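Memo to structure team: turn this sequence into structure tokens by end of day. - J.P.
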Amino acid sequence: MSRESEADLPGDALPGVLSEELFAELVAFRRDLHMHPELGNQEFRTTAAIKERLEKAGLKPRVLSVGTGLICDIGDSGAGAPILALRADIDALPIPDTKSDCAYRSTVPDRAHACGHDVHTTVVLGAGLVLADLHAKGMLPRPVRLIFQPAEEVLPGGAADAIACGALDGVARILAVHCDPRVDAGLIGLRHGPITSACDRLEIALDGPGGHTARPHLTTDLVTAAARVVVDVPALVARRVDSRSGLAVTWGRVESGHAPNVIPQHAELSGTVRCLDLETWRQAPDVLHAAIDEVATLHRAKSEINYVRGVPPVVNDPAVTELLREAMTARRGVESVEGTEQSLGGEDFSWYLERVPGAMARLGVRTPGDRTVRDLHQGDFDADEQAITVGVELFTAAALLDAMP
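Reply from structure team:
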């Protein structure tokens, strides 16, 4: 679709506008998910609820072989036509819901949809129901696949399980949204190229003969060795890769020893490795191993390194990003799209983009006029539910416009 033709397609000229009745149903569905959050690979109730609603619409969802998550095709996906996929993540976080005045706050202790996955799920479900209706009327120009993926919050993410179960078979493009509490509901944020960062986990064990703190020269001073790893490894790594790559090592746990006058024999460190650049991320394990071994050897400590691959950056395909821009513009005008920055957060949507072109949009969930500073992964996170309408209509417009010449 050309830029010139956008003016000929105002939002009310495109089919697939969300009805008030379906919006009310989707709000209730989202609130039910919010009240019953489930962790990665434990989303049995969530999977059952999605499956039941899709089957009620006459669709045939298929639960993934891992037991949670599901795939559902709309249209004839076996006819050889390229499929447009819409992906949602369905898991919650292991943190308490701290919203005190919310009627639909989590009923599960220490579990919360504090990243908006309940919104993502509801948006893809709603888009699927609208597109199924359009397909029944002969108005859907290409097959669409709904992917409800488990375990996004679990490294390296449930995307690999979904892909192994055939989620990308026949898929030509894939779309997703992610809630952004810094963006007003009614808006989306788009970016060509990387929109998130890579995220890996690093675990280190240091060992050596301990002893009395009065004679550190006769020991491997593991506390000092661990302290030097904490301080020196990030500095060394920063000088061994291109500084523009944004490779950052951040520690979350350091443990060693039990008594003030005993040099311990064992120390443990763990943290994360984040990186803005895809090529540098691929080099990161070798760079980290070399730096850790160098510092540990200098202090006569034996190191054991467990480098856990997480996810690469989400790199938005320019053409698919423009499809989202055109879809949002057709629905709500050019002012409904804004630019967005690359974040240091990780997202396993990136694994799909290693195989097919796609794009993720940031979905505004902040109530317009509210300037309270909120963030993801916090117990007070919530979303303006008008964002559900925006997400559904964004996806339905993209599905319709993607097949236009």
